[in-house]
Design a protein that fits this description.
The complex is a heterodimer. Chain A is an alpha/beta fold. Chain A has eight helices and 16 strands. Chain A has one domain: Aldolase class I (TIM Barrel), CATH 3.20.20.70. Chain A has an eight-stranded parallel beta barrel with strand order 3-4-7-8-9-10-15-16, surrounded by six helices. A four-stranded antiparallel beta sheet of chain A has the order 5-6-14-11, with no helix packed on it. In chain A, a hairpin with a 4-residue loop joins strand 12 and strand 13. Chain A is globular and about 55 Å long. Classes of the chains: A alpha/beta, B alpha/beta.
Chain lengths: 303, 255
């Protein structure tokens, strides 16, 4: 029997597999395909203080082994989440985390404080790395001072597990992670999408309505893996790895690079049942390798 | 309930830049409504990372098969059209909401443009089964006669009228130019096809005060309402075509 439990501050994951924000709806969309109780956690769609319509269509461009999106945090706002969605999902037999975003510090703080009051949400993932919104979003996540400001402010009102989602669109991600840690983050998750672009040569126009968008999917995995490795060496808080994970083997690689847990994102679109398969596959790998506790794999890279 | 099922291609008919695949699975098929779609995995094609949403052309519960009529557009659909008999295909189904069933004694006009004719056949069959007194008429449009496939199938479930842009089959012009508009009594219109065609149909329906539903095909990633990529800007704001549609009453749309 392989021990798969991952302990994070204030929260225990039954296994290291979570689903990434923006790729798993509110969990309900996937309930036909996945027994949610087989997951370590689900991170629901990016939530902002106020209703956001998001960006105009087209919001997606397929790329080799990946996709670009510029959804732009479409959501009905934190109050709608609390009144309408939370009652439906609070009793899922897994950790339900809310991804929180904002266009200024006050918005982040107000939304985080409202979610702090929800008994069945053990953590938030602070989104300082969305590349698809004009104000806020990634702007906070690309400088040490920006991330410090927003994490410090949220830390004052948010008393449960505070995960901070990092942008890969920076020169030195380890420095940004250290700044988040110093400002009070309990963990960091990385990577959010890589800023990219697609052009239609026939029409000579950009494919996406916002011209640029965030790249995700299998194609980003090597970059994500490298960044997780760099950050895990730099910080003391747990690192949650994501970026192109599409199989149990991919997940194991992230654990070996230093991630304490992982998130599955775009792969959910291709195989809606992939998250539970990865959780099972991690156990199979451990059995085959004689690993008794998944935690033994964390940072187990042999160089 | 939505499912991921492995199907096998058991029959295939090829057309110019399109193919009809009959797919069989061992497990019982979920209940499928006319106008719903499937999301098909394209194996071994690095330019088709995501599944391809394809409307359901026919369902046979007795033999446990579905038919998909697929047009070659880009790499992914080309690969699907080239699938040989015996190949395994992973399919997520059934997705989206279908067309609204007409009522007793309705005169229904089903308008298809190009590959948009595909879902209308199965929908007309379900109308014939559920609402027997209802008369279904097809108005199918293509650029040329080669765009209009399987007409004998359509003729088996309703009268078929045709337009082609080059006049190679039926009346010359667009579906909205057809002479039946002057003579036929119509209560309900269902349309699926290229966006300019559906917008033109919606305009005619509005001018004549006829109830009308259209099936949109905005580009999708997940197909189940999670990614919010395929949104249509409606009177209710941005709605996912995959989950809230793909069928919309024109009164909900901004066009």
């Amino acid at each position: 029997m392989v021990k798969t439990e991952i302990k994070l501050k204030g929260m225990t994951l039954k296994n290291p597999v979570m689903t990434a924000s923006g790729t798993f709806g509110y969990g309900e969309e996937y309930a036909d395909f996945v027994d949610l109780s087989e997951l370590g956690g689900i991170i629901v769609k990016g939530t902002t203080l106020h209703h956001r319509e998001g960006n105009p269509y087209p919001r997606m461009a397929e790329t080799p082994m990946g996709m670009l999106n510029c959804v732009g945090l479409q959501n009905k706002g934190v109050d709608y989440f609390i009144e309408t969605i939370y009652p439906r999902i609070r009793h899922f037999e897994t950790n339900v985390l809310v991804n929180v975003s904002g266009s200024n510090i006050d918005d982040y703080v107000t939304a985080a404080a409202k979610i702090n009051a929800l008994d069945d949400i053990p953590a938030i993932e602070l989104n300082v790395s969305c590349p698809n919104v004009k104000q806020g979003g990634m702007a906070f996540g690309v400088t040490c001072s920006g991330i410090e400001q927003v994490v410090k402010a949220v830390r004052e009102v948010y008393h449960k597990h505070l995960m901070v989602k990092l942008s890969p669109n920076v020169t030195n991600i380890a420095e940004i992670a250290l700044a988040a840690e110093a400002a009070g983050a309990d963990s960091v998750s990385l990577i959010n999408t890589l800023l990219g672009m697609a052009i239609d040569a026939e029409t000579r126009k950009p494919v996406l309505s916002m011209v640029t968008g965030g790249l995700s999917g299998a194609c980003v995995k090597p970059v994500a893996l490298r960044m997780v490795w760099q950050v895990a060496k730099a910080v003391k808080i747990p690192v949650i790895g994501l970026g192109g994970i599409s199989s149990a083997t991919d997940a194991i690689e992230f654990l070996l690079a230093g991630a304490s847990a992982i998130q599955i994102g775009t792969a959910n679109f291709i195989d809606p049942a992939i998250s539970a398969k990865v959780a099972k596959g991690i156990v199979e790998y451990c059995e085959r390798q004689g690993v008794k506790d998944v935690n033994e794999l964390v940072g187990g890279l042999i160089i | 309930m939505k499912q991921i099922i492995d199907f096998i291609v058991i029959e295939k008919q090829s057309f110019q830049r399109a193919a009809l695949l009959r797919l069989h699975c061992d497990e019982p098929l979920p209940e499928i409504r006319g106008g719903q779609f499937v999301n098909v995995r394209v194996d071994g094609c690095d330019k088709a990372y995501l599944r391809r949403p394809i409307s359901i052309h026919d369902v046979d519960y007795q033999n446990n098969t579905i038919d998909l009529l697929i047009q070659e557009k880009h790499e992914g659909t080309k690969k699907l059209c080239a699938l040989p008999v015996g190949e395994k295909v992973s399919i997520v189904l059934p997705l989206g909401n279908g067309f609204t069933m007409p009522e007793k004694d309705d005169n229904v006009l089903l308008i298809g443009g190009g590959i948009g004719i595909a879902p209308l056949y199965y929908f007309a069959k379900t109308i014939g089964k559920d609402v027997r007194s209802c008369v279904s008429t097809f108005l199918l449009g293509g650029r040329t006669q080669n765009d209009l496939m399987l007409l004998e199938r359509f003729r088996s479930v309703g009268d078929v009228f045709i337009t082609t842009n080059d006049g190679s089959l039926g009346e010359k012009g667009f579906v909205t130019d057809h002479s039946l508009w002057n003579t036929m009594k119509i209560n309900k219109i269902y349309a699926c096809g290229p966006m300019p065609m559906m917008k033109a149909v919606a305009k005619v329906a509005r001018d004549k005060g006829i109830w009308c539903e259209v099936s949109l095909e905005n580009q999708m990633a997940c197909g189940i309402g999670a990614c919010l990529c395929c949104v249509e800007n409606t009177k209710e704001g941005n709605l996912c075509v995959c989950k809230e549609g793909p069928v919309f009453n024109i009164e909900r749309l901004l066009w």
